[in-house]
Amino acid sequence: xxxxxxxxxxxxxxxxxxxxxxxxxxxxxxxxxxxxxxxxxxxxxxxxxxxxxxxxxxxxxxxxxxxxxxxxxxxxxxxxxxxxxxxxxxxxxxxxxxxxxx
Length: 102
Known about the structure:
Elements: E1 2-3, E2 25-29, E3 37-41, H1 65-68, E4 70-84, E5 87-101
Antiparallel strand pairs: 1-2, 2-3, 4-5
InterPro entries: C-type_lectin-like, C-type_lectin-like/link_sf, CTDL_fold
Domain C-type lectin: 5-52
Transmembrane segments: 68-101
């Protein structure tokens, strides 16, 4: 989220944004429907991943696989009930699949 501290001349806004309201912050929306457009938002709203570096700072951004990765975890639980020699046996199989998309 970026707090507006001066007049912005950027024009890659999503739809009718900025809306001319009291919203003084913006987010860069990277989902499929907004396709990399900016949206004005309330400054008290919460959004993931905020990074700010002061102009003239010696700090550097380092792109790592961990920072750029999306992790998807799928847990599948299968319960199998079988009767073996007149005894009910319950087998629980848990499969965990982790997919990392970089």
